[in-house]
Amino acid sequence: ANVYIDCHCHISSGEFDKQFFVFLFQAGLLAVLAVAEHFGEFEKIIDLSKRFQGFIFPCLGVHPVQEDLDAALPIIEKYKDQLVGIGEVGLDFTPRFVSGDKDKENQRQVLIRQVEIAKQLELPVNVHSRSAGRPTIHLLKELGVQNALLHAFDGKTAVAMDGVRAGFYFSIPPSIIRSEQQKLVKCLPLENICLETDSPALGPEKQVRNEPQNIRVSAEFVAKVKGVSVERVMEVTTENALRLFPKLRTKIRL
Known about the structure:
The chain is α/β, with parallel strands linked by helices. Helix content is about 40%, strand content about 15%. The chain has a single domain, classed as TIM Barrel, CATH 3.20.20.140. It has ten helices and eight strands. The longest helix has 21 residues, at about 100-120. The termini are close together.
């Protein structure tokens, strides 16, 4: 049986309709982790996780460029027992979002507060780190984070290896087949790799809606680079995801 776990997916996106969800069940997935970017999505994610219990799992958090953490916190508190992770949280230092040190510091504070929540709830963090690989990993280590998934990591391999030494995991999206980050897959141990789609973004083809069934594209690429079978990649990445998100073990409909 195909037992992929999509560790980072924007399943609450308006791009997905009812028909899509019927199809999703046939896509060869064991579980989908639904991440949020802003608190406006929280209720929809919780609703989807209830409708597709044991299959769609909620991670609530505020993306670095959103400014609504205060509004988000009570909702995280309300649903804390249902969450498998806090995310998507992190730093985004692309020039579009950051014009100086003040912006970077604001983002750091938002991340710090959410890491504190994750620690209190004993949950892993699902992390975005665009153009901020080094500062993100540095901050996570400084804060004593033990369980982190760095999604679609765009930093240097040396920085990623620093994350590996800290025990962090890295999830690989289908866009890897057209990405400059292919060397990342080469250097990461399979024991630190998870799979993701980041649907509807980061698909195998540019500008084409990505979907969770494309997770196999990630698996096939990792298998090719590592010189192992797709089945082996599936097995190890699923085990990694279950280790990183332990609440999945008790809730997945196996």
